[in-house]
Amino acid sequence: MPSLVASSTKAEIPLAPESPVRAMTTSTSVSPAPEIKALEHLEKLANSKTETNKAFNEGQENKHFAQAFEKIEVAVSQIKGRVEQIMVATEQQARATVDVTHSITRVSEQGEDTKLQLESMIESSEQVAEIAGHQQAMLHKYQLQAEK
Length: 148
Known about the structure:
By secondary structure, this protein is an all-alpha fold. The protein contains 2 helices and no strands.
């Protein structure tokens, strides 16, 4: 088998793309130049910035959710306040209904008493009319006897 030249051999392909700086530093046997180290440091800073931005964006998203939940909490507390007002008003209406019912009952009882009193007065009036009729008849009799 003929010997292969190093430049014509197949290189292993990494599973995920590596950074160009790492590829340069791992494939050479010479220690990296100061520029390479600076590039590595800049790459780390860029990665750190990306992570910071990601965390910031997540924080902003969470802040947005927190604001939405705060609005929901305010709405729920307002609804609770309205429900309490409605409950108080309902209780007041129930008491007022009971008061009105009692008043109607009293008026009805007074009407019944008035009816009984009127019936008694009519009966008394009939008795007075009957007595007056008897007195008139007696008066007629007395006048007739006095004339004779």
